Amino acid sequence: MSHLSLEVSLQREMQGASPIIVTSEGNTAGREVEERSQCIIQGLKRLPQCHFSTVQVSDRYLDSILQQIHHQEYLGFLAHWNRALVGEELLFEYPYVDQGIQPDTPLFAGVYDLSREGARTAIAAAQQVVKGASLSYALCRPPGHHAGPAWLGGYCFLNNAVAAVVTLQESGISPVGLIDIDFHFGNGSAAILASRPDVWFGSIHRSTILSYPYKEVQPASDRQTFIPFSHSPSSEEYLSAVDELIKKALDFGCGAMVVSVGYDIIINDPHGGWHLQPSIFEEIGHILAQASIPLCLVQEGGYLLTALDECAYKFGSGLLGCDQK
Ligand SMILES: [Zn+2]
């Protein structure tokens, strides 16, 4: 199926400077910055089939979705520190972490406001699918797939991809699939979806022993498929894993699919470690498009600023069925 257009949902602008999100290691390379989104937009703008719109989702609807994903107490904790921290203050100590791992991502002033805009963007992209788009893309930040029912970590505070899944479900689409192709395992998405019987979840990632969240993980049920790599996969190995996940999602009967997109699988990403080239995304896009079901792409990681433009351009080209060769 050749998709005619890609509807891109742009995050609402925040007041003042966009915060730079670091980890407790204080990493200078690979910080989570607003510039990431700008680079991705540049890549997508090279494709005339991309239509850009700024999101419009009410606070009321946003809250109704977030309350289905995260515990109330956790949302209250984020809301509290959102205002209690001021200026450059960071909070490194808190109890809301995934089992067996240490806090790695500090809270900052406005953390809840910014994270809510990310989730709002993902919801808006899902609503584009509900309205009939076959291809939509949420350019949200910070990423979300490490955020669990009541925990944050790895730059993630609210789970944007699951917010998109729930939005699709609310419109009556069932079952829904979530495929996570970020370099890192979406421990938050897997945990939240474990209790949702009508969602299929698949992930391709670097071994969770070798990379975040640095612990062993197991699928919660036969509705979850994990494909970890301990070595840097060849493009053939990687693409056949993508193919396998899509077949399983379609076998499950998914009527639409959310894709957690991470550009950190490519060579030289500061948080990565594999040797795949940006051009892999054209092939990934082709394979995803062949599923012939509506796709809602949600931005997760990808921190090599000089490559994000090309990754996004290749991905869009593959999804749209453009012949770039
Ligand atoms: Zn990642």
TrEMBL record:
The keyword Zinc applies. Residues 32-314 form the Histone deacetylase domain. Keywords: Hydrolase, Metal-binding, Zinc. Its cofactor is Zn(2+). InterPro entries: HDACs, His_deacetylse_dom, His_deacetylse_dom_sf, Ureohydrolase_dom_sf. Gene3D superfamilies: Histone deacetylase domain. Belongs to the histone deacetylase family. This is Histone deacetylase domain-containing protein.
